[in-house]
Write a structure and sequence with these properties.
Aminopeptidase, 31% strand, alpha+beta, disordered C terminus, 33% helix
Length: 171
């Protein structure tokens, strides 16, 4: 690739790139489920900016371009909820999603008090399900959202998470 991908905390200046990347990445999910009203496709820029202040938002950069992103927040009960893990289609299948998942787990867990990590994906999103299983997540529930979409919730204990190397997360 020539340049290396770096993972760091997102800034407000990244919000527009994150939103555009999210829109691009969720097209395949919308097609898979026949539903273009998925929340990541209708989210506003103001809402993305608000999320930057509410929790942990990491981005992966290739030069100045945001090529992947993930968000997470820790609930009062100690559950770290991870969502909107997106990787640019041209960057998929190179381990970047796994690196970002490990990085957000490390960042959320660093403050202490995290008991579990939890995330969700659609029941037909086999690539996502494989990635999460590979990283120790197991299905803990399902919720039928529509006739075409069932969300699968996956979780793992925080103790099962491998901490990232010190250089894995900047910022």
């Amino acid at each position: 690739m020539g340049m290396s991908v770096t993972i760091s905390a997102a800034t407000e200046q990244d919000a527009e790139q994150i939103l555009k990347l999210q829109y691009l990445c969720y097209q395949s999910e919308a097609e898979l489920y026949g539903d273009y009203s998925l929340e990541p496709l209708t989210q506003s820029l103001a809402s993305v900016k608000a999320e930057l202040g509410d929790g942990c938002v990491l981005v992966a950069r290739l030069g100045d371009e945001v090529v992947a992103s993930v968000r997470g927040i820790v609930d009062a009960d100690g559950t770290a909820r991870i969502n909107k893990l997106v990787v640019h289609p041209r960057m998929q299948r190179h381990g970047l999603g796994g690196r970002l998942l490990t990085a957000v787990e490390g960042k959320l867990g660093a403050a202490g008090g995290v008991k579990h990590f939890q995330l969700f994906t659609g029941h037909r999103s086999e690539t996502n399900l494989q990635l999460y299983r590979k990283h120790g997540y197991v299905p803990v529930g399902t919720e039928q959202v529509s006739a075409r979409l069932t969300l699968v919730t996956l979780a793992k204990d925080a103790a099962a998470s491998t901490p990232p190397s010190p250089a894995a997360v900047q910022g």
